[in-house]
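Re: the 444-residue chain
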Amino acid sequence: MRPSILLSALLAAFVPAEAGFRLSSYAPKAFKDASPLTVSPHVVSFTKHNSVSTSQRYLRSIVGRSEVNGVYGDANVQPVEDGQVFLTHVTFGTETFKSVIDTGSSDTWLAEKGFQCFNVTTGANVPEADCAFGTKGYTPSSTFSKIPNENFNISYADGEMLIGIVGTEKVTLAGITVHNQEVGVVQLAGWFGDGISTGLIGLAFPSITSAYAGNNPATDGPNTQLPYNPVFFNMFEEGNVAPLFSLAIDRGNATGQLAIGGIPDVFFSEPIALAPFQVLTAIDESNSTTGQYQFYSIDASFAFAGSENTRYSEKSGLPLARPASDAESVTIVDSGTTLLYAPTKVAYAVNAQFNPPAFFDQSQGAFFVDCDATAPAFGVVIGGATFNINPLDLILYNGGGPCISGIQDAGDSFGILGDVFLKNVLAVYDVGASAMIFAARENY
């Protein structure tokens, strides 16, 4: 089926993105004990690029309090941050491309050379350049084999859409090659690209992969989804690595490292803490196909002057198990978010402790602070261990005018541990143990 025919079929069934998304959650069952924190030989460097990350498209609505009867819509606010993406190299066959590392997506995909770009609002065909991929695209190689009677279909709550074919290809990441890895090849795209990446490497669970039975994406739905193993899952199931990956995000130079099957060779120290995770899934209400994006969430609290008296009341109806202690709050760990979003009590208390105090700008919905202010002592408490945040990460320069406080108000929704926190830890996603492990990395 040619892209023009695909587009006509999809637009006939298209529901505007304003329908929003719902949230659900589950706790994956552990299938082995936590793996030791050993240095892995399978490490790739990545670079940070300021761009609207996929996670931010959902978290804006969650933090923006735009939920009505369980459906999250457009937050209708101008965020103080756009988020960020991390880019590294992946090889399909013999071609290598810069791609986004995404802990919340499951598919690994590339745009095909000659793909059709379309406007997500009008559905009109537009030049390829409007989708802002980093290259002209991937040409399926001799090692690529199309899977018959399947199609690739992702649509997001902001209207973005990727349609194409499904096939198997030799995929190499971090020095590990998976032969016959199932991948998506995008032939039709409504995409807000970053101008650098040509695809994405998904590290989330098989439940939200985007292959469907048949050749007509307009008929895709939960009953036609064909879940498959993402590349990371094949890596550990084939015995190449332990079932974990880790991120070390550097301060100041917009770089970091992704390690598969272990940790990168970076400095870290005590404390080390383990926290079981729940997986929070966003399900697009506009087409009700399957889960579109996933977040890792843990229970955390915060350490600051006066925090011993802080208790949290979680918003009723959140689709997650509540923490056992009212001193803890359900918190998302998200590498696509720059700032740290804490419960209202925490955000206001900590921002008042800057010297001079930070102030809340109602028009922008965010805390700002004098760039020469002294930051307060602040830490994130996970599994009884306190991970201190370096003061350098609590005041973010804003290109003129006051600086942005690293601590923002999450309201009555989930807290979010973004870059402000992740620069201070080694973050390990231990899928085998269904837990996250954190090691201190405050000073380096």
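The two ends are 54 Å apart (CA to CA).
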